[in-house]
Amino acid sequence: MSRRVTREMAMKLFYQMEIGQEFECQKVYEYIDENAMKDMDVEYIKNISSKFIGGMEQVDEIIAKCSKGWSIKQISKVDLSILRIAVSEMMYADDISAGISINEAVELAKTYGGKNSPSFINGVLGSAANELGK
C-alpha cells in the first residue's frame, strides 16, 4: 500500500479523534484493528499518531500561528486533520521532506476538503515549513 493511502487512513483517524475529542493511543490501536488493510504501513500510523498525541499543543500552536486569522476552532475538522498530519510530519519525521508533506496534504484536501481547502492548506503549510526552518 502506498504512503498516500496510509496518510489517507491516518487523516481519517485524526478526524475521528477530533470528532470524539479522544486523543489517546488506545484509539489509534482500535482504529488500526478495525481498519487494517494488507500492506498498510501500520508503523507510520502508530508513529505519526503517537507523536501528534504527545505534541498536540505544539502542533496546534504552529497551525494557529500560520493560519493567519483563523483559530483552530474555525478550521474545518477535515482540514485540521490534514494540517495536523502534515505539521506532525514536519516536526517529527526526519525521513519525510516538508515538500512531500505539503504536496500530500494538498492532494488530500483536493479529495476531502472544501473548494478552498487546497489553497488554504498549501498556504498554512508553507508558512509552517518556514516557521520550522524546513
TrEMBL record:
Alphabetic keyword roster: RNA-binding, Transcription, Transcription antitermination, Transcription regulation
GO MF annotation, one: RNA binding
Transmembrane segments: none
InterPro entries assigned to the protein according to its UniProt record, in alphabetical order: NusB-like_sf, NusB_fam, NusB_RsmB_TIM44
Residue ranges of domain NusB/RsmB/TIM44 in the record: 6-129
Gene Ontology cellular-component annotations: cytosol
Family matches, as NCBIfam families: nusB
Recorded family membership: Belongs to the NusB family.
The name this protein goes by in its record: Transcription antitermination protein NusB
Species assigned in the record: Peptoclostridium litorale DSM 5388
Organism lineage: Bacteria, Bacillati, Bacillota, Clostridia, Peptostreptococcales
